[in-house]
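Two proteins were folded this term; both appear here.
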Amino acid sequence: MASPLHLTPDQQAAVNSTASKSLVLAPAGSGKTEVLIRRIERLLDESRGQSFRVLAVTFTVKAAGELKARVTQSIGEEAWRVDADTIHGFALDWLHRSGRAVGVAPDVVVYADPRDRVDLLRRFLDSVGEPYPDQPVLLDALRRIDSMRTALVSPEDAPNEVVGPLSLRLPELYGAYLTAMDDAGGIDFAGMLTKLLELFELDPSVLRRIRRTYGHVLVDEGQDLTQAQSSLLREIVADSVGLFVVADDRQSINGWAGGDIKWARKLAGPGSAEFELQNNFRCATQILSLARKVANHFTPPRTDAITPPGTPPGSVCAAEAEDSAEEAQVVVSWIDDLLQSGIDSSSLVPGEWNQLAPEDIAVIARTRYALDDVQQELEKRSYGLSLRVDAESLLATPEARLFLALLEVGVNERNQPAWRRIDDELFNLVDEYSGIGEGDRTLSQLCATVSNTPILPIADLIGRSNLDGEGLDAVRSAIATGEYFHGPDLDRLLAWWAEYRASTHAQERSGLGLLRFLLRVQQTRPDEPGIRLLTTHQSKGLEFRAVAVVGLTQGSFPDYRSIDNESDLENERRAFYVSVTRASRTLLLTWPQRRRTRYGERHAEPSQFLKEAGIRA
């Protein structure tokens, strides 16, 4: 990374742009975060005493938090003028404030789990007497519905096709899903965008208020914008708000979700100023050389960034194993050597520190499943690891997950996803628990069902509390005793609770506010010490001194579903490019001769990307 005090000429040109709309093409390791921060600093410094705010739209909650922290550190008291969030977080925040006109209440339930979304479709099918098909059929229907919503296609314009074995056609199922979501008082991620766009049309005063609030919008990872996201931001920016978009089509890996750099270009508009960052400050020369070979196979082929003088050579190595278990042993032995002996000094510039902490090392795979053997081998050797997980898995114990779900229904008893999680946990915790049925469930019904269990006191307290002010403090005090549950999960919850209290005025604290805060926490990977295990999509935007990319077989990476489709294969190639460019000093690529599948072990051919990268002839 370039020194924060010394930007390169191309970085400085982007930071100093006076164009109302700017597009910055920024390859991996080119210092785009530094450019974004310096751009924000410049905008605020030149407008001291003014009240407009700056909105920074990031791809992940983690990136938003880090950007806000760095800006706060560098500009101090003016940092209050910076809002950093994901596009979905931004949209949901404004819907919380003003969304009643489009049916979004302040206590709207976020439907993030596919199981809960499928359940909405199942309930509708039950209501019309339609046989309930296998879950994969409904998941595929949801995928198609989401694709249309991302492309801003209404139910009326959906293809008039039958869905799987259903007699219903896609427009009807699409419309029924939206109605079921509204009836449940819920919203999903696609709905956060489409509902806010609907609100702009129904109540233009909301859009005017947003435009008065923000003088500038900065967008990171613009290559992964979808049509809906681009349209929403374009409405906000219009002609009056400054726009600064950073993107790199080489790192566009969300094509499956509708992401494409063309939406960044459409957002910036034909008259925008365009800049390109030239240097890769992250990757050693051998790693960047490999990345260049991969980029040469893009459609169209792309040249890659250049390395500045003094860049160390780094190292790239590859290993074939008999099976995935042996592959895991190879990877963990590589990690052993790095932690014990450090990076070979011949890979570094003279005087560069060669020792590594576990947090400097990442193992990346195309899917979570492909990390299982490495995880087991690391645990067998008692290594600490940080595994990026889904929201529910942030809490390890059923008691803690149950408490969080109880808090959710305490705020809104219509929260069906929370009731589903309560049932899931109680079936494991309480002998002979049979549930309390579907429909309008209440905490008082639940208390009657668990009256002879240790869960009753906390469920009863949540049911009796208004979860504002003193009521919320009473619930916190009850769990802080450790009688209900204890251990690391309790420590985590209390730490999050303390952070919420520290960031919120006393009169504004509420159960709903706490849950909104925890939703943001749950969208962020844990930062516990240890070796990082990540999927390719989770690694986006991160960097490590040492990276192993595993499971590089044809059918795994690239995924078997993409091999015969050039567009899908291109997305997989870009995912591979992103994976290898997470490494700054040393890179290991591995593949097994036999890989595990749901049908047992199968012979595996090495990934075609190994040949494209020059690893295999």
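Next, the second protein.
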Amino acid sequence: MQMRNFLQKYKANLYLVCFVLAASAVLAGMFGFGSLSIQRDGIRQEDHTFDFSAAVPLAKTHRYYLQGNWEFYYAQFLSEDGRAVLSDSISVPGSWAGSPVQNMPYENGGYASYRCYVKGLSHTKPLAIIVPNLACAYRVYADGVLVTESGTVCDTVGETFTSPAVHKDKVYFDDGLHEIIIEVSADSFSGLYLTPMITDYAYETAYTNAFSALRFALIGIIAYAALVLAIFSARSKIRYFSPWLTVLFLALVLRMLISTEGYAVSQPLLGNLSYERMFLFSFASTFIIKLISIIYFRDELKLRVSLQSMALLSVSFLLVVIGSDLLPNAVYTNYYYLVLQMFSIVADLYLINKLCQRLAAGQRNAGLLCCAYLFLLLGLTVDALYTCGAMPFRCSSCMPISFALFALFITIIHARSAVVMYTNARQAKALERELEKANMAVMISQIQPHFLYNALNTIKSLIRRDPKTAEKAVIDFSYYLRGNMDSLTHLEPIPFRTELQHIQYYCNIELLRFADKLKIEYDIAEDNFTVPTLSIQPLIENAIKHGVTKRPEGGTVKLSTRKDAENYIVQVSDDGVGFDPTAALAEDGRSHVGLSNIRYRFASMMHAEVTVDSTPSVGTTVTVYIPISQQKGEG
């Protein structure tokens, strides 16, 4: 056992390492690919001038990223003040907040201008100059002409309005020297922390439209899936999935609506809140999604996640989100967002470790759930890195695609589970039909033709000589038949009082048949418990049919009940011919077949024990021990 636990723990740790390596490899590959694509351009820069003469020609799907040193004019708009004074040279992408420019760190927020020059850039088709998804308001001038605008640029704190939506015009460059000025303003963000880029105007327009349409198509699919899941969960009697899956899907939809291209369209629909303010909600949604994921996976895989752990994570995340809006001016808010967002890796490692443990234990669907969470984690991480400026290239489409893959995997997982549950339900239905047949067989076995014949003959003989007794016999016989029919619909245990009534109806008929040869005694000390339907009456029938009536002088059948500390005890005894219990299985008598059936029903339904004590020529005693703990409302 110790070796098995050791191997399982070893496998879980191995899966955890593989998961972390896979996620790291994907992130490193994306970052490396983006960096190589930028270096491939071969753009030389000197004295704030980008020289494109040796660069790779701009193809339709290509972008030039203007990474390098730009002239920086703090708290100045070059388009409005031709006598602006150069503050310093600053690296783009990057933030001015906290940068030791002229031995003084600039505060976050405010406004400033950037300027660079380009030469050797000749493209026969119109160009566009943009800074996509920047949380600052900005405007771009090419040779003094306003060509791109996003949000409302303002030199007054609190009046800046930011938006990821971009209004752009066509730009035409020849091989000569051209000036590019980008003016930015924000309440708390600072500068060109995302990379400005030059791209083909027609391609950029088509790209923006296509990926906005793709994002909202994926949003619609996931939102529709959440709606279907909610309706299905509300109407289904069987739980196919955790109800938190619907909440998780809605959280993913919200995240896609309030970030990058999603918010460029949904901003007017969501209160027209400045993108800079919405960025805080986008930041907070990362923690919310990861908390919901833990709850969902806990329900789905029955993970042992304590309420204390959930409360600790929730409080920690809440403090991080609140603290992110109270940042000191010496720290750039957006980069600080990234650092704080990485704190959620604690939740990722916690959940991934739990998933890997289930995978090592061989739990169904654990592997697919690991893959699904990998997509969710990559989507959130890449989006955080990109929107905070850590990814040097445009990759805003990664998040919605990753979320869609996560939803696809989860759908496949639950579709497989639904098929299994449907198959099990069909098998259970078949077993239920077999049980109904078995109940019918039990009922029929209790109404043997000879009993019907004898009962009817007894009633016939009473009609002329004792009509009142005959009338009572007919009533008892009808109640007896009704009790047998009702047993078909009672799959659960019934009150002992109900079974006792059925026994009395049966015994009344048998007393009329055998007259002085049969005596029935009742010693009922306890009757407030339940028994399987038609479980005690067959014992009485066996005692009469195979016990006392086999003796010429007849005998007595006694039914008694009592209670001890642990059990309700039902006892059926007779002073009939008895039998050898060790030879019972070898005989071909219905009584022993019925006794086996009764034993099985008591054991499977109530964990009760049935014992038989019999001595030839002395009599038989059958005792049933029904645990008090198995009674509803007891123990």
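Residues 109 and 188 are 4 Å apart (CA to CA). Residues 398-446 form the longest helix (49 residues). These notes refer to the second protein only.
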